[in-house]
C-alpha cells in the first residue's frame, strides 16, 4: 500500500461512490437544462434584435428591447458556465507539466484581475500529472477570479505557488486526516475545509492561490463548493466557480482545501498526484 494512506473503510468507500454518483447526476441534469434553456434564450435574443432594428431609437420600446437583449446575453453567459460545470472532468487527460501550465495561465491573470498585484512562485523542476491542459487553465482562472472578488479596493494581492510535496510529509498526513468535508480550526486560528482525498501517489503537486481579501465566515466556507452558491449576486455570478474547480480536480485524481480567516484572506490549495511519465 502506498505511503501516507490508511485502508479506507467499506462505509467510506460506499459514501465516496454515492457522492460521485450524485455529482454525475447533477452534472448531467445541469447540462440538459442548459441545452434547452440555451435554445429558448436564442429565440428571445433573436426576436429582441429584430425589435431593436425596427423600432424608433428614441422610443421607450427601443430601450425595452435593448434591455431584453442585454438580459438574454447575460443568460447566455450563465448557460456557458453551466455547460462548463457539466463538462468538467470529462475531457481527455495525458501527462503534462503542471508547473508550465500554471506559469502560462498566470501570465493572463493581470487582465482578469486588474485590481490585484499577482505574483507566482513555482517549483524549478517539472511536476508531471495526468491532466487536461485546458481544464488546468480554467481551474487557475476560476480560483484567481474568486480571489480577485474577495479583494477590497485596488491594493489587493494574489499569490500563486506550485510546490512538490511527498506522501511522507506532515502536510500530506494532515490532509489525509482532515478529508471529511468538515470545517476545523488550524494552528494559526484560520478555518479549513478539505474536500476529498487525492489518488495514492508518492509525490504531489500543491497549487496554492492566496488572496489578501476579506476571508470567509464559517457559514460561507461550509457552502463554498455547493453548485450555484454565491455571495456576489446572481446578476453577475452563477455560483459555479468552486463547484467546477472541484469537478476538475476530482476527475484529475486530486483534492481541494480552503483555509480562510476573516479580515486576513483565503488560500485555496489543489493537490494533484504526480507520475514519473514524461510530459506529452
What does this structure look like?
This protein is an alpha+beta fold and 280 residues long. It folds into two domains: 78 residues; 180 residues, Histidine kinase-like ATPase, C-terminal domain (Heat Shock Protein 90, 2-Layer Sandwich), CATH 3.30.565. The protein is 46% helix and 21% strand. It is built from eight helices and nine strands. Helix 3 packs across helix 5.
Estimate the global geometry from the Cα principal axes: globular
β-strand percent reads 15-25%
| Overall pLDDT confidence | 82
Helix content: 40-55%
Largest sheet: number of strands, sense, barrel closure: 7 strands, mixed
CATH topology of the largest domain: Heat Shock Protein 90
Task: Report the top-level CATH class of the largest domain.
Answer: Alpha Beta
Low-pLDDT sequence parts: 1-8, 234-238
Count of distinct strands: 9
Structural class of the helices, strands and pairings? Answer: alpha+beta
Q: What's the CATH superfamily of the largest domain, by name?
A: Histidine kinase-like ATPase, C-terminal domain
| Terminal CA distance | 28 Å
The total domain count is: 2
Number of helices: 8
**How are the strands of the biggest sheet laid out side by side?**
2-4-7-9-8-6-5
CATH architecture annotation name of the largest domain: 2-Layer Sandwich
What's the helix-strand series?
HHEHHEEHEHEEEHHEE
Radius of gyration: 21 Å
Amino acid at each position: 500500500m502506498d505511503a501516507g494512506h490508511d485502508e479506507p473503510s467499506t462505509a467510506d468507500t460506499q459514501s465516496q461512490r454515492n457522492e460521485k454518483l450524485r455529482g454525475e447526476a447533477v452534472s448531467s441534469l445541469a447540462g440538459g437544462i442548459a441545452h434547452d434553456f440555451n435554445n429558448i434564450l436564442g429565440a428571445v435574443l433573436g426576436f429582441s434584435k429584430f425589435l431593436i432594428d425596427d423600432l424608433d431609437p428614441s422610443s421607450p420600446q427601443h430601450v425595452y428591447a435593448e434591455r431584453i437583449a442585454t438580459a438574454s446575453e447575460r443568460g447566455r453567459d450563465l448557460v456557458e458556465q453551466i455547460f462548463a460545470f457539466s463538462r468538467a472532468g470529462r475531457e481527455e487527460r495525458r501527462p503534462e507539466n503542471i508547473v508550465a501550465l500554471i506559469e502560462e495561465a498566470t501570465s493572463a491573470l493581470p487582465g482578469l484581475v486588474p485590481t490585484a498585484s499577482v505574483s507566482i512562485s513555482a517549483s524549478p523542476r517539472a511536476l508531471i500529472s495526468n491532466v487536461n491542459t485546458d481544464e488546468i487553465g480554467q481551474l487557475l482562472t476560476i480560483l484567481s477570479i474568486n480571489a480577485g472578488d474577495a479583494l477590497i479596493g485596488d491594493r489587493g494581492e494574489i499569490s500563486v505557488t506550485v510546490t512538490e510535496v511527498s506522501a511522507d510529509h506532515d502536510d500530506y498526513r494532515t490532509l489525509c486526516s482532515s478529508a471529511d468535508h468538515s470545517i476545523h480550526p488550524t494552528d494559526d486560528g484560520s478555518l479549513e475545509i478539505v474536500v476529498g482525498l487525492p489518488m495514492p501517489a508518492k509525490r504531489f503537486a500543491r497549487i496554492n492561490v492566496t488572496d489578501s481579501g476579506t476571508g470567509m465566515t464559517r457559514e460561507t466556507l461550509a457552502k463554498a463548493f455547493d453548485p450555484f452558491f454565491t455571495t456576489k449576486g446572481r446578476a453577475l455570478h452563477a455560483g459555479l466557480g468552486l463547484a467546477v474547480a472541484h469537478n476538475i480536480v476530482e476527475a484529475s485524481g486530486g483534492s481541494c482545501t480552503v483555509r480562510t480567516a476573516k479580515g486576513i484572506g483565503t488560500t485555496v490549495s489543489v493537490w494533484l498526484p504526480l507520475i514519473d511519465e514524461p510530459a506529452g
